[in-house]
Design goal:
352 residues; alpha+beta; TIM Barrel; Immunoglobulin-like; 18-stranded mixed β-sheet; two-stranded antiparallel ribbon; 8 helices; 19% helix
C-alpha cells in the first residue's frame, strides 16, 4: 500500500469580496491556522477577486484556492480552476447544464452545492436546492453542508439560540435524501462527494442579541473535507493547488465533522493481495478481497454497499471480506456526550 498524505480542508465559504460576506481574508486565514486547516477553497459569489488580487497560494502553512459560487435562483455550482469568473443573474433561473459546460470548457472543475438546502422560515432564509438532476459532466456534489444541516435546527427563537451557542450538538449529518441520491448516482456514474461549510460570518438579530453566523474561528471546527494524496505538498502554489483539485476529481477524499474529534488518519482501502484500491478508485474483483478500515479512535463503523449497510460494528480497525461487485463506502459515528454522532463519510471504492 502506497503511503497517503492526509490534508484537511474547508470547501465553500465567503469573504468580504462576496456581496453576502464581510470577513477579510487575512482574518479567515488566521482562523484557518488556529484550527489546523491545511487548505481553504474560497467561493465568493460571481467573482474571482481574491485570485485577481494575487491571494491564491500559500499563506504561511495554509493553501488558499480561489473558486466561485455560481448562484442563479436555484442550482448553485461551485467552480474551481478558472481564470475568469462566470457571471449569471442571481435572481433568475439559468439552465444548469449550460453552467457546467461553461466551467468545463474553461478548464475548471465543479461541484453541485447544497443540493437539498431548505432555508429557514423563522429567519426568512430562502431555499436554494439543486432541482435539475438530468445534468451530466460535473465532478461531484456536496453530501454534507454545514449550513443546511445547522439551519434545520432553527425551528424557533429559543432553539436557535441554543443551536447557535452549541451548533455541533444539533448537527444531524448528511440528509438521507442526499445520501440516497448520491448512492443512486454512483451506481451509474462516478460522483465525488464533498463537505461544505457555506459560512458568511453574517450578523443576525435574535431576540435582543446581534450574533455573527459564524465567526470563522468557530466555523472551521465543523464540516471539513480531507484529501488523501500519494504526492505530498511541495510548497509550490501551482503544484499544490493541482494536487488538491486532482485528488477531489479522483474522489480521493472524505468528509468529517471534527468538533469532537479530528479525523486525520482515517483509512479505507480494498486489497486482494495483488491489487490495492482506495477511495475514488475502481477495483476489479478477480478473487476474494478484503476491505480495511481504520479510524483514529474506537467508533461505530458502517460499510455501505450500493446504498445499504452490509456490515456494522464498533472498532478502531476492521477487515471485512468483499465477495461481490458494488459501490462501497464508509460511514463512521463517534460517541460523544452520551450519543453516537455523525463523524466521517468516505467516498466510494467502485468494485467491478
Amino acid at each position: 500500500m502506497v503511503a497517503l498524505h492526509d490534508y484537511t480542508g474547508v470547501i465553500h465559504f465567503h469573504s468580504e469580496y462576496s456581496y453576502d460576506g464581510r470577513a477579510p481574508l487575512r482574518e479567515i486565514l488566521k482562523a484557518a491556522r488556529q484550527n489546523g486547516i491545511d487548505f481553504l477553497m474560497l467561493t465568493d459569489h460571481s467573482c474571482l477577486t481574491a485570485k485577481e488580487n494575487g491571494m491564491e497560494g500559500w499563506h504561511d502553512n495554509v493553501l488558499l484556492i480561489v473558486g466561485q459560487e455560481i448562484a442563479p435562483r436555484f442550482n448553485h455550482y461551485l467552480a474551481f480552476g478558472l481564470d475568469r469568473p462566470i457571471k449569471v443573474d442571481e435572481n433568475r433561473e439559468v439552465i444548469p447544464q449550460n453552467i457546467i459546460d461553461t466551467v468545463n470548457k474553461h478548464g475548471g472543475i465543479g461541484f453541485i452545492a447544497h443540493p437539498d438546502h431548505e432555508g429557514t422560515e423563522v429567519f426568512h432564509v430562502k431555499h436554494f436546492p439543486w432541482i435539475d438532476w438530468n445534468v451530466v459532466n460535473y465532478a461531484g456534489m456536496g453530501i454534507w453542508d454545514f449550513m443546511t444541516d445547522w439551519q434545520s435546527s432553527l425551528i424557533n427563537y429559543p432553539a436557535a439560540l441554543m443551536s447557535y451557542f452549541f451548533p455541533a450538538f444539533f448537527l444531524r449529518g448528511p440528509r438521507k435524501i442526499t445520501l440516497d441520491r448520491w448512492d443512486s448516482l454512483n451506481r451509474q456514474l462516478k460522483i465525488v462527494g464533498i463537505g461544505e461549510l457555506d459560512n458568511h460570518d453574517t450578523p443576525r438579530k435574535v431576540l435582543f442579541l446581534t450574533l455573527s453566523v459564524f465567526p470563522f474561528k468557530r466555523a472551521f471546527r465543523f464540516v471539513r473535507t480531507h484529501i488523501v494524496s500519494e504526492e505530498p505538498f511541495s510548497g509550490s502554489a501551482d503544484r499544490d493547488v493541482s494536487i488538491v483539485l486532482n485528488a477531489l476529481k479522483l474522489g480521493r477524499a472524505y468528509v468529517a465533522m471534527e468538533y469532537f474529534q479530528r479525523a486525520s488518519g482515517f483509512r479505507f482501502h480494498l486489497s486482494d493481495g495483488d491489487n490495492v484500491a482506495t477511495m475514488g478508485d475502481s477495483f476489479t474483483l478477480k478473487k476474494r478481497a478484503v476491505a480495511s478500515i481504520r479510524v483514529p479512535v474506537s467508533s461505530r463503523i458502517r460499510l455501505i454497499k450500493d446504498g445499504f449497510a452490509c456490515w456494522e460494528g464498533e472498532a478502531v480497525q476492521v477487515r471485512i471480506p468483499v465477495e461481490t461487485v458494488g459501490v462501497y463506502r464508509i460511514e463512521v459515528f463517534l460517541k460523544a456526550w452520551g450519543k453516537y454522532r455523525p463523524w466521517i463519510f468516505s467516498n466510494p471504492i467502485y468494485v467491478q
